[in-house]
Amino acid sequence: MTALTRLRIAIIAFSLAALSLPGSAQSLVDELAWAYAITPGPAATPPVDDGTRHSLPGSERQFTLDQIRNRMGPADWFPGDHPSMPSIVAVGREAAGVWACSLCHYPNGKGRPENAGVAGLPTEYFIQQMYDLKNGLRTSSEPRKPNTPLMIGFAAAMTDDEIRAAAEYFGSMRWTPWIEVVETDTVPKTHPQGGMNLRFEGAAAGTEPIGRRIIETPINTEYTELLRNPRSGFIAYVPKGAIARGEALAHGSKSAVTACTVCHGDNLDGLAVVPSLRGRSPSYIARQLADFKQGARHGVWAPLMGPVVAGLNADDILNLSAYLASLAPTP
To answer: What is the tally of helices (H) and strands (E) in the chain?
Structure first.
């Protein structure tokens, strides 16, 4: 079976699974819309490359917009910040239609809210997730999320050696602070675009009540959205009290919910192939909890998570995501 055939099968399976979601599943996805940041209507047209060479503080390099967003070899602003990248991470494999991992996840593996921070993940966990994607065992509860079928296709087309090379590369780097969590009643007005919540600018700018949401947004929109600066992180605004409520949940305060510490360790820094949860994107964490709860993730270790998430509601997922994102990564 060719990689293209596998991709088509995976996308069809993903679409059918999304269409069969029960009403309660769609309700949960709707309540967690902040975590998916689906662009309403057509995607925004990217700015045209006019040949200007852009620069960033601390980097000696300059790139045009097309070089920055090149799917088969995106800009590497800070080559000294990471080990030498394997080919699949640096340039992908064009013949197989596999984009460079570094385009979306950055050369340092920090990633962005619309995808995943993959630095510091256990190698065998990373590999298992890629095979879950390859084998149709990991999809998304939100059928409109565009990068899920892309990842399914990439995983299907990648060789065993490429998967292991990427896993070992990203696993060789520790996860370090990337997201500032702030409890607040009001947040900057934002709009969903490309899986992220971006601040309105100009006349549309302002503030609004946070409500039952987490708003994770770039600290510097231009650095993140236009220049893909791998040193420019994110700020996550969370409702007041969410961190304390999430901490209680993570340690077993709700009788219907197993404490996260049972599998992820007393300090939530992971155990063996179980990943650390400290300081990760709250948007990503919320999506994964929803996906486990709705059965969109049913790989090797999913049966362990099923009973844990069964008793969670949207507010629980918000609070857990806020708490886990607020934890400083272990040095």
So the answer is: 15, 7
